[in-house]
Amino acid sequence: MHADPNLQHDLMQIRAAISLLEQTRAYLSLPMPNSDPAYWKARLKTALDTRSHDALADQLAAELCRRIDRMEHAASIKH
Asked: Which one, 19, 20, 46, 48, has the greatest CB density within 10 A?
């Protein structure tokens, strides 16, 4: 089964957002919904739950989830 092209697009957007948050560390200081790692985790889950996906999409999603978990952990230590 091939991944839905819209899923691939969403995963790339989520990856770009996570990269930006990691670089700026905005998730540690900006109280905005899109700077909250939980927002991106929810978006990732919604994207995966609503579209067909393949092993490559699953692998990318797992990597993104690990990165989000690291940000959440760093934010919990700061607060």
From this structure: 48
- Whether 30 has a pLDDT exceeding 90, the answer reads no
Sign of the C-alpha dihedral computed for residues 28, 66, 23 and 20 taken in this order: negative
pLDDT of residue 1: 60
Alpha carbons 73 and 4: distance in angstroms, whole number: 31
pTM: 0.85
State both tokens at 68.
């989000």
Helix H segments across the chain? 5-24, 37-50, 55-78
The Cα–Cα gap between 23 and 15 comes to: 12
Note whether 10 and 60 are within 8 A (CB): no
